[in-house]
Amino acid sequence: MSGRDDPEKYLRWRVAVGDLTGRRRWPLAMLGSRLTELPEFPTPARIPAQGGSEPAPDTGWSAPDPGCSPPETGWAAEAGWAADTGWSEESGRSAADGTAGPEWSSGVEPPPGADRAGPAWHRIFVGRMAVAARSVTWLRHLLDHPVTLARVRRVTVVVQDWEIPQRGWSGRLGPVPHLLAQRVVLPRHDRGRVVVELELRWSVPLRSVLVAVLPLLTPIRPLPSPGSPEVTAQDVFPGWLGAGPQLAVVAGELPDSSAVRPYDLVLRADDRAPQVTGDGSGAMAYRSRLTVDRLGVPDTDGDGRTGPVLLDAEHAVPVGRYGPFGPDAPRAELTFAPGPDGGSWRIRGPAGLDCRGRLDRPWLPERTWSALAEVGVLDCRSVPGWRPRAEAALLLHLVLAGVLVHAPGLPPSCRAQLADEVVALLCAPLPDRPAGRPDPQTDLDWEARAVRQRRAVLRRHARGFALPRLAAATFPGLGALPSVSALLVTRRLEHVVDAVRIVAAQTYPELEIVLCLHGVRLPAGLRRWLADCGRPLEIVEVPARQSFGEAMVAATARARGTLVTKFDDDDTYGPEHVWDLVLARHHSGATLVGKAAEFVYLGALDTTVRRDAGAPESFAQVVAGGTILVGRGDLADVGGWRPVPRSVDRGLLDRVRRAGGLVYRTHPLGYVYQRRPAGHTWDPGLEYFLRDGGAQWAGLPRHAEFGTAVRAGGTFTNADRIESGNRHVTT
């Protein structure tokens, strides 16, 4: 990298990000440097060229609008000198206290010798760097700032307000090149201040250090794939890129290689070819390039549509946010206002709710997440279209925050930034509001609408799913979704047809079925029917003397998917069930994900009850065994399935937690746990499921989310399932 040639060298540097409340703790060695605090997030979309030969384009970052008071403050960075003697505390200083020098570019006084058009951060070497962040979310946002290109050897990262995702979870430091020493100090209780100190033999970019520190503090688990390209952003900082082993940001020229190309997909702010060292041919430097901006991909084709807005779903989805739902849920209103910075937004609602922000920072800070916790519906009667990409990005972030967003007046310029599926769900009329007493079916319609919005945003706009699709023309074999194997172990032939039919009807495309027959054999007619089920099917037979756990082991051994999920032969699953699990694993970073047995069908009463089974969209101790999804590699790492005759699911959950992994419970829609009159190894009685119950339905809930809506020949009922299975079993 050209940044290694004659770098600007500094002994001390410190960076503060977020609104650091109270007294700030810095290493005593850093006290000689003053702290300049900026009021707004200053990320340029493009890194200025060294020497100022090329001005940075307009990125939308500018001075704050006096009429808009954003909920969070931003960044600080300044060089300084002192002796290395230990730790101390000092209160924060802002730009208003007179400590800040003349502003440049993003509002920071440049170090001596740096060009006034902007610092060439990749040419700066810092002997000791201290980073203070208010929260893990703010530490993630620091990845989108060019200061992370500075090369460092000793780094101290302080997170002021950290909370463990779940008791028993064990974070792990990611790989750091040339690591000599590390020190981690976590709070004694579940929440508090975290200090991470690292010392390296040779300098590396600060971004590499932060990417390694994040898995210590928050779960990060990339989508499993048999192959993926090396993605590198050159001279651009996409806000959606996130952190990952194959995701990097560089400035300056790309190094060439005669052995293997260093980069497969290069992201740039313009359509020019990347600069490459050497003779300029760059034959081995990269394979393909893609023009991007801070919000996504601005252009993809010439049909009038722009490229999609992209999101880093790993930190755009708040944990624990689900509901309220229904026509009587609290409502808020989203409005927009013009301003010298390109516009601002405001959300006003019940109980004095008043959230504000700027369009040049469309992601939602933590305070806005908290303020929207009790809002069920967000009305946006008019979207102005002043900055369509930023306005579209804001709507997407609001959907991921768990709010049902209704934007019927979405202008064409904003529609062009969004997937058709998302546009339809944002603009369609809200479900009916029937008069009279509350109707559980109506509340279910409103809940399903919010779930569908978030599902559509994740699979169409999340970087992990959208970027491979955009690069599919160059890498057609690498754009596929993670493959999933559905494990179906059964002793009851009368349930095979319907269970296989439910799995085959899943909308997730990369899905195979592993049918394990535990002590039974297939009739010829049933075998012929299975051959035409429409999905890749693997049939495994194990003798009855083997335990259920051993049968799960045999089925998993024959599975070819990078993810495996368990289906029970008599439960009810909606068509989007597998998609829900894959999306939950992506944005939560959990080792194992599933759904709760919240909807329970009681066969003795022919009634479905909705019970309180724990908070959805949150880390949990247990999930329903018939909904477990886990990576094959993760399953092997914790020891796989236990060879026990019962409680196989509980055994796996215990192993995951003992290994320091996380269990995540996504929303409950799309799964109904079936309780037959007899035949369960665990039988607490009907009173257990009726106690403190909520809504009830005669039979199964008739809803598309459960795959039980009206179909040809009538509604789908439990009796239909038994009858359809028996016809093939007796053939």
From TrEMBL:
Q: Where is this region: Disordered?
A: 38-116
Q: What is the protein name for this chain? A: Glycosyltransferase 2-like domain-containing protein
- Residue spans with biased composition (Low complexity)? 72-86
Species assigned in the record:
Plantactinospora endophytica
User: What superkingdom heads the lineage?
Assistant: Bacteria
